[in-house]
Please model this.
Amino acid sequence: MTGMQYKLARIAAGWGIRELAEAARVSTYTVVRLEKGDALRPNTLERIREALENAGVEFLADDGNGVGLRIRTIDASASEHTQSNKNSTVSSVDEFSSKRKSGAMTIRETFAKNLRNLRLARNLSQEDLAARAEVHRTYVSALERCVYSPTIDIVDDLARILGVKAADLLNEDLNL
Model:
């Protein structure tokens, strides 16, 4: 596959460079290098491809006209990186929770609720928090809606910015 095809796959998944890098556990510079056509190690390419596949990108074999891709609808349990599909979008933690069968909140739901509540308690907009964390505003929104699962580094960065311990963001009983 070419760098442009990987870029198209990333865009089709609805991800920015940082989100793909985080999901694939590579640096943003690695994604930039890939998309401009630089050669990468096979295991790095495999991690990037796997992250894109987990986001719903399906790579199609070369049929004589080149390699192709398509977006498949994935169910909520199929990927830890997304909780939406072509037919529905989760707009809040409460809506996400109501779609679950059990009453207990997942750690992702707890994180999302605490992130939003702490951000609002600190009078920060999603844009302000995103700028301080050096992520895109839509990524903060997606975290608050349980669309993405954050890496431990993101949890740590956001906790530091919000003035709490990382464990506090994961605490179901957090009192503001």
Q: What stands out?
A: Residues 107-121 form the longest helix (15 residues). Confidence is low (pLDDT under 50) at residues 74-93, 95-101. The CA atoms of residues 142 and 148 lie 6 Å apart. Residues 3-71 form a domain with the 434 Repressor (Amino-terminal Domain) fold (CATH 1.10.260.40).
